[in-house]
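Retry 2 of 3 after timeout on previous attempt. Resubmitting C-alpha cells to design endpoint.
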C-alpha cells in the first residue's frame, strides 16, 4: 500500500514525463527555429528519464525493474549533451557544431547507451542490483561503477555549460531575452541538485532518486518560457549575428529583423527615427514601424517617414550565422530625401524645357516673322531678327535636351554599326540642315564596324558638327569627320575637326570638372550632351587644337576591321536610319 509521500514521488515523476511530452507537442510548431529542434530532443530524453523512473518505482518484478532503471540511465546520458546543443544553437554559437570538441561530447551518451543495452554481458555500469522497497515504492540500490559516473558527469557538466551560456545571454542582451533565459536556467537547478545528491549517496534515502519528481517545476518553468513569453518567436542568434556584422557601426537607421519579421535590435538612428526607447521597446513587429511586411518593403525599395516626410532607400540583406543558416534580415535605411527632392525639381524643369519652353518659343518665332513681314522700318527689322536668332538658339537647346532625354529613358542598346554608311547618313542629314557648311567624311580604306549604340553615337557627332558650324567665324564653315582604329584595335576613334578659334577654356573646364557655377559655365548644352552620351557608351572625349579645334571621341568594343558583307551592311544601315527616325527631326514639336 503506497503512502502519501510515495504517491507524490510516483505521480510527480509521471506528471513530469507527461508534461515534457506535452511541451514536445507544443514546440513542434517551432521546428527549424534556432535551438527548437535541440530542445525538443532534450525534452524527449527528459520524458524517457521521468516516465521510466515513475513506472519503475511501481514494478517489483526484478527483470522489469531492471529494464526501467536501464531506460532511466539512457535518459540521464543524453539529457545534458542535448541541452548543451540547444544552448549553443539558441544563443547563436552554431560555429561550434562543426568542431570536433562538440562532437566528442556525444561519445559519452553513445557509449553509455551501448553499455546499458549490453549490460547483461558485463557489469561496467553497476553491480549488485537489488530491489529494496521504501515507502511502498520499488526503489533499488546498486554499486555505481566508474563508467556510469563518467557518463553522468559528462551529462551534468554539459548541462551546466548550457546554463552558463543562457546566463551570459541574460547579462549581454538586456531585457529582450531575460525572462526566457532565466526561466530555462532556473529550471535545471532542482533536477541537477537532486541527481548529484543521488549519485554521491548523500540523500537521506539512498535508494530514492528525487531528480525525476524535481523535473515537475522544471517543466512548469519551461512552459512559462515557451508558452508565456514565446521563447522561440525571437532568439539571441539573430542579435548575435547582427553584432558580428560591420553594419552595426553604420551611420544610418538599422533594424535587425528575425524570421518572424519582428525587430529585435536597432541602432540609435533607427530608435530616433521611429521614436523608440532603444532595446527596451523590443521586440516589435516590423509592420507596425514601416507599415508593410518585409517583402513589400523590398519590392518598393523605399520607405517614406510619416513623421518628417523624409525618404529612405531600403537595403535588405540576409542575416546568417557562422554556418550560413538564415536567422533574420538586416534592414538599412539610407536617407535620400535631398536626392529625391532634387530629382523632383529636375523632372519639372526638364518638362518645362522639353515642352513649355519649346511651345512658347515656337509662338515667339511665328509672331516675330509676322511682325517682320508687316514692318518697313529697317531698324525694327534688325530688332526682329535679333529676337528670331535668340529664339532659334533656345529652341535648338530645347530640341537637343529632348532628344537626349529620350535616349536616356531607354538607355544604351548595343548593335552593330557599319561605320562608313553610318557617317555618310549623318553627314547627309547635317548638310541638309546646314547647306552653307562644307562637311567632309574621311573613313579607312577598309570598311569597319563597331558594336555600340547608333542613337547615342549619332547624337555625339551631330552636336559636335553643329557646334563647329554655329561658332564658325565666317559664313562658309568647314568641318571634317574622321574615323580610325584605336591603338589596341579594340577601340574606334572619331574626330571632328574645324577651322574655328579655340573653344573657350570655360567650356572645356566645365565638361572636365563635371559641373557649372556662376563664374564657370558653358554657353550652351551641346557639349554637355556630347559628354553625357560618350559616358553612356563607356568612351572617352579629348579636346585639342591644331589649326582648329579637334574633338576626339574614343569608343570601346570595336569589331575586327574587316570588310562587312553587303547583307550585314544593309541591315546595319536600316537599324541606324530607324534609330534616327525614332529620335525625330530637330524642329519637331512632339514632346
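Retry 2 succeeded. Sequence:
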Amino acid at each position: 500500500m503506497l503512502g502519501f509521500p510515495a504517491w507524490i514521488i510516483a505521480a510527480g515523476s509521471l506528471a513530469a514525463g507527461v508534461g515534457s511530452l506535452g511541451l514536445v507537442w507544443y514546440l513542434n510548431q517551432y521546428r527549424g527555429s534556432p535551438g527548437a529542434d535541440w530542445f525538443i530532443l532534450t525534452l524527449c530524453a527528459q520524458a524517457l528519464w521521468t516516465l521510466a523512473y515513475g513506472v519503475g518505482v511501481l514494478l517489483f518484478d526484478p527483470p522489469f525493474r531492471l529494464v526501467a532503471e536501464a531506460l532511466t540511465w539512457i535518459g540521464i546520458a543524453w539529457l545534458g549533451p542535448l541541452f548543451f546543443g540547444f544552448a549553443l544553437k539558441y544563443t547563436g554559437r552554431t560555429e561550434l557544431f562543426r568542431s570536433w570538441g562538440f562532437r566528442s561530447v556525444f561519445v559519452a551518451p553513445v557509449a553509455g547507451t551501448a553499455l546499458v543495452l549490453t549490460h547483461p554481458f558485463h557489469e561496467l555500469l553497476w553491480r549488485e542490483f537489488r530491489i529494496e522497497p521504501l515507502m511502498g515504492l520499488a526503489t533499488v540500490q546498486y554499486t555505481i561503477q566508474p563508467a556510469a559516473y563518467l557518463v553522468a558527469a559528462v551529462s551534468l557538466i554539459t548541462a551546466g555549460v548550457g546554463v552558463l551560456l543562457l546566463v551570459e545571454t541574460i547579462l549581454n542582451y538586456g531585457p529582450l531575452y531575460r525572462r526566457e533565459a532565466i526561466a530555462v536556467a532556473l529550471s535545471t537547478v532542482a533536477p541537477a541538485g537532486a541527481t548529484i545528491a543521488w549519485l554521491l549517496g548523500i540523500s537521506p534515502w539512498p535508494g530514492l532518486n528525487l531528480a525525476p519528481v524535481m523535473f515537475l517545476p522544471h517543466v512548469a518553468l519551461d512552459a512559462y518560457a515557451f508558452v508565456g513569453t514565446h521563447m522561440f518567436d525571437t532568439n539571441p542568434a539573430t542579435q548575435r549575428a547582427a553584432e558580428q556584422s560591420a553594419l552595426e557601426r553604420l551611420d544610418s537607421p538599422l533594424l535587425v529583423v528575425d524570421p518572424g519579421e519582428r525587430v529585435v535590435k536597432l541602432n540609435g538612428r533607427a530608435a530616433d527615427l521611429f521614436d523608440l526607447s532603444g532595446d527596451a521597446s523590443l521586440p516589435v513587429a516590423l509592420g507596425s514601424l514601416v507599415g508593410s511586411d518585409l517583402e513589400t518593403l523590398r519590392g518598393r525599395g523605399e520607405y517614406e517617414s510619416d513623421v518628417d516626410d523624409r525618404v529612405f532607400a531600403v537595403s535588405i540583406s540576409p542575416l546568417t550565422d557562422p554556418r550560413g543558416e538564415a536567422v533574420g534580415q538586416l534592414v538599412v535605411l539610407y536617407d535620400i530625401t535631398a536626392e529625391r527632392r532634387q530629382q523632383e525639381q529636375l523632372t519639372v524643369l526638364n518638362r518645362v524645357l522639353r515642352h513649355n519652353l519649346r511651345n512658347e518659343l515656337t509662338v515667339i518665332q511665328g509672331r516675330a516673322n509676322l511682325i517682320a513681314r508687316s514692318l518697313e522700318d529697317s531698324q525694327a527689322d534688325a530688332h526682329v531678327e535679333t529676337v528670331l536668332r535668340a529664339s532659334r538658339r533656345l529652341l535648338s537647346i530645347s530640341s537637343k535636351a529632348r532628344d537626349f532625354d529620350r535616349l536616356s529613358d531607354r538607355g544604351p542598346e548595343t548593335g552593330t554599326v557599319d561605320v562608313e554608311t553610318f557617317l555618310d547618313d549623318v553627314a547627309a542629314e547635317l548638310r541638309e540642315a546646314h547647306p552653307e557648311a562644307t562637311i567632309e567624311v574621311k573613313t579607312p580604306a577598309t570598311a569597319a564596324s563597331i558594336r555600340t549604340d547608333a542613337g547615342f553615337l549619332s547624337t555625339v557627332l551631330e552636336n559636335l558638327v553643329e557646334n563647329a558650324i554655329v561658332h564658325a567665324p565666317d559664313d562658309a564653315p568647314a568641318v571634317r569627320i574622321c574615323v580610325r582604329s584605336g591603338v589596341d584595335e579594340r577601340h574606334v576613334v572619331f574626330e571632328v575637326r574645324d577651322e574655328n578659334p579655340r573653344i573657350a577654356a570655360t567650356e572645356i573646364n566645365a565638361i572636365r570638372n563635371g559641373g557649372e557655377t556662376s563664374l564657370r559655365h558653358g554657353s550652351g548644352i551641346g557639349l554637355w550632351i556630347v559628354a553625357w552620351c560618350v559616358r553612356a557608351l563607356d568612351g572617352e572625349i579629348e579636346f585639342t587644337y591644331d589649326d582648329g579645334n579637334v574633338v576626339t571621341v574614343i569608343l570601346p568594343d570595336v569589331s575586327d576591321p574587316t570588310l562587312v558583307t553587303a547583307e550585314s551592311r544593309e541591315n546595319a544601315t536600316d537599324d541606324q536610319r530607324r534609330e534616327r527616325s525614332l529620335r525625330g527631326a530637330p524642329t519637331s514639336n512632339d514632346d
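Attempt log closed. The chain has four domains: 4-228, 238-335, 338-410, 411-583.
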